[in-house]
Here is the input.
Amino acid sequence: MKVLLFNGSPNLNGCTYNALKVVKESLEKNGIEGEIIQVGTKVIRDCIGCRTCKKTHRCIFNDDIVNELIEKCKSADGFVFGSPVYYAHPTGMIISLMNRLFYAGGDALKGKVASSIVCLRRAGGTASIDVLNKYFSINEMVIASSSYWNVVYGPTKEKMILDEEGIQTMTHLGENMAYLIKSLNSSKEKKPNHETIIRTNFNR
Ligand SMILES: Cc1cc2nc3c(=O)[nH]c(=O)nc-3n(C[C@H](O)[C@H](O)[C@H](O)COP(=O)(O)O)c2cc1C
Here is the structure.
């Protein structure tokens, strides 16, 4: 059983990376493999709304990591999307990734366990988490929570160590995710098989 942890920070060894590392270590202590994937330093295109992926289930662009990640998500059991807070929002890189990953490859994540974490200096944490969690709640995913909102205060990895509660929140998140993934995997219940989804535009 495996969790992919996406780092949407351009800092390879900053707060977000280290917060994700705490979640990964906690998952691993509880029998779930973790892999941190660096996203924030890569060039990731925005979605151009061409809707080609609705037929192909792949993004039309092959010059970045999105299609590769769609394939990787198929065999994963859970996902953590991490980002620093930029102007009270997640970074553009993680948003660009998630728009295309979910629009083209949402089936690879559907029904699985997901969570998000953010790192920040002072404000905008829960607003950023709300943005990230919306991808999960429109894709029938099981959202793992922790003992507080999934926020760790930096602004640097050295200062982050001082946020004991934030770090503990990451540890608890890993424990809760491991519990949920193992529970879902051992369940004899089948996922609901929905009737065809009715799609109406707001203005018909
Ligand atoms: C462009 C930019 C915008 C930022 N906006 C915010 C903000 O709105 N609120 C906040 O608390 N911190 C803000 N920060 C600080 C970062 O969120 C903070 O330093 C974070 O811990 C960095 O994480 P990292 O080390 O993983 O990159 C901003 C930083 C940058 C570079």
Observations:
- The chain has a mean pLDDT of 96.
- The domain at 2-186 is CATH 3.40.50.360 (Rossmann fold).
- The chain has one domain: 2-186.
